[in-house]
């Protein structure tokens, strides 16, 4: 079946099946590989993208349910975004990237938080990152990275 939606600011049209997830569509049809399948059950956050400005687990969303009014944004779509640049620098400064597998999902969660709350508390940071699993850093460096990005101001 054919679907049309907006992807990273551009209207796109592609073929899909009723069973294809948004994650698989992004990776296979559009070669956007930042979002990853960590669990396939919506538990780890590695596949986080924005759908209509809200973070979702793309491994759970069926691509066939997208329509012309839907807008999907991936990490790749935020490459030139000023807030994402601050986030990347914060993660780098704090050494919050080890294997890197979880980082696209973590940075999407961070972007969503900081775009709605420029100066979050540690508790708010922990809540925002709660849907993301990291097996390497122990979260302290990631929490520090979010704070670092927030401290960069506008």
Total helical segments: 5
The helix/strand series, from N terminus to C terminus, equals EEHEEEHHHH
What's the story with the biggest beta sheet? 5 strands, mixed
Apparent shape = globular
Number of strands: 5
Mean pLDDT, all residues: 95
CATH domain class of the largest domain:
Alpha Beta
Class of secondary structure makeup: alpha+beta
Ranges where pLDDT stays below 50 over 5 or more residues in a row are: none
Percent strand equals: 5-15%
Rg over CA atoms: 15 Å
How many angstroms separate the termini?
43 Å
Number of domains: 2
Q: In the CATH scheme, what's the topology name of the largest domain?
A: Ubiquitin-like (UB roll)
What's the CATH H-level homologous superfamily of the largest domain?
Beta-grasp domain
Fraction of residues in helices? Answer: 25-40%
Strand order, largest beta sheet: 2-1-5-3-4
List keywords for this structure.
154 residues; alpha+beta; Ubiquitin-like (UB roll); DNA polymerase, domain 1; five-stranded mixed beta sheet; 5 helices; 5 strands; 35% helix
Describe this structure in words.
This protein is α+β, with helices and mostly antiparallel strands and 154 residues long. Strand 1 (2-7) and strand 2 (10-15) form a beta hairpin. The chain has 2 domains: 2-75, Beta-grasp domain (Ubiquitin-like (UB roll), Roll); 80-151, [2Fe-2S]-binding domain (DNA polymerase, domain 1, Orthogonal Bundle), CATH 1.10.150. It is globular. The mean pLDDT is 95. The chain contains 5 helices and 5 strands; from the N terminus they run ββαβββαααα. It has a 5-stranded mixed beta sheet with strand order 2-1-5-3-4, with helices on one face. The longest helix is centred in the last third of the chain and has 14 residues, at 103-116.
